[in-house]
From TrEMBL:
Residues 25-85 form the HTH tetR-type domain. The lineage of its organism: Bacteria, Pseudomonadati, Myxococcota, Myxococcia, Myxococcales. Residues 1-26 are annotated as: Disordered. This is TetR/AcrR family transcriptional regulator. Keywords: DNA-binding, Transcription, Transcription regulation. Residues 48-67 bind DNA. InterPro entries: Homeodomain-like_sf, HTH-type_TetR-like_transc_reg, HTH_TetR, KstR2_TetR_C, Tet_transcr_reg_TetR-rel_C_sf. PROSITE patterns: HTH_TETR_2. It comes from the Bacteria.
């Protein structure tokens, strides 16, 4: 009997961490869903953290364990979606296509995501770019991971002979991300118009950037003189 009790206690102790983790994930998903629903129905500005906590069925103290502000709640909602889109786009990448086509394929997934709720997307991009340094870990993770994967596309294109050997891959990834985010901001602000007006703008910007990566591009410091 004593042995049986001890065995049962050990089993419960072993199961406890897994149960706690499941409970934690369930609360996180409830908070995410509550924030999504309230942001969509009331608007981001009008929604309070107290309302989100009530909708999720948790106390405000519990809510603040996951996110201290509405801005961080917005990051919780979108970070998961952004990572999912990133994985899907790179998984379905046309491997034999030119670099320009691959880049447009990747970026297209994000424009489709943000088209579903442009008002909330504008808030997310603003927070993504201008979060205070203290809670910026998730933001930096998203940006750096994405830029690194773009640099990986450039590296693969270099292996195919599309890109010159001297190209700085890290900076190339940064530049491509910058072109994407600038076009995205212009599109979300309405400056580019509705629908897929982002596509020709982004394609032209990327094509111009990639011409500087071609094999016959002249490295910095060795540029040809302009004709007079």
């Amino acid at each position: 009997m004593v042995t049986s009790r001890k065995s049962s206690a050990r089993q419960k102790a072993a199961e406890a961490p897994g149960l706690r983790e499941r409970n934690k994930q369930e609360k996180l998903e409830r908070i995410r869903e509550a924030a999504r629903e309230l942001f969509a129905s009331k608007g981001y500005a009008e929604t309070t953290t107290r309302e989100i906590a009530e909708r999720a069925g948790v106390g405000t103290g519990t809510l603040f364990l996951y996110a201290r502000t509405k801005e961080e709640l917005l990051m919780l909602i979108f970070a998961e979606r952004v990572e999912a889109v990133q994985e899907e786009r790179f998984r379905t990448l046309p491997r034999d296509a030119p670099l320009l086509e691959q880049l447009v394929h990747v970026f297209e997934g994000f424009f489709r995501l943000y088209a579903k709720d442009q008002e909330l997307a504008r808030m997310f991009i603003r927070e993504l770019l201008f979060l205070e340094p203290r809670p910026a870990g998730e933001r930096l993770h998203l940006e750096r991971t994405f830029s690194a994967r773009l640099a990986g596309l450039v590296a693969a294109a270099r292996e195919r002979g599309e890109v010159a050997e001297h190209i700085d891959l890290e900076m190339a990834g940064f530049n491509l991300f910058a072109l994407y985010i600038t076009t995205l901001m212009g599109w979300l602000s309405g400056a580019l118009g509705p629908g897929e007006t982002w596509r020709p703008v982004l394609e032209r910007a990327l094509a111009l950037q990639l011409r500087g990566l071609e094999q016959d591009a002249v490295p910095s410091g060795r540029s040809k003189r302009r004709r007079s």
